[in-house]
Amino acid sequence: MITDKKLTNPFLLQADDLSIEDIYLIFEAADYFLDNYKPGVKFNDLKGVTVALAFFENSTRTKLSFELAAKRLSADVFSFQSKTSSLAKGESLIDTLRTIEAMGVQIYVVRHSCSGVPHFLQRNSSGIVINAGDGKHEHPTQALLDAFTLRQHFGSLKSLNVCIIGDILHSRVARSNIKMLSTLGANLGLCAPGTLLPRDLVKWNCKIFDDIQLAIDWANVLLVLRLQNERMESGLLPSMSEFSKYFGVKYPHLTSKPELVLLHPGPVNYGIELDYRLSSYPNVLIQTQVTYGVFIRMALLYLFKHSFLN
Question: What class has domain 15-138+292-308?
Answer without folding.
Answer: alpha beta
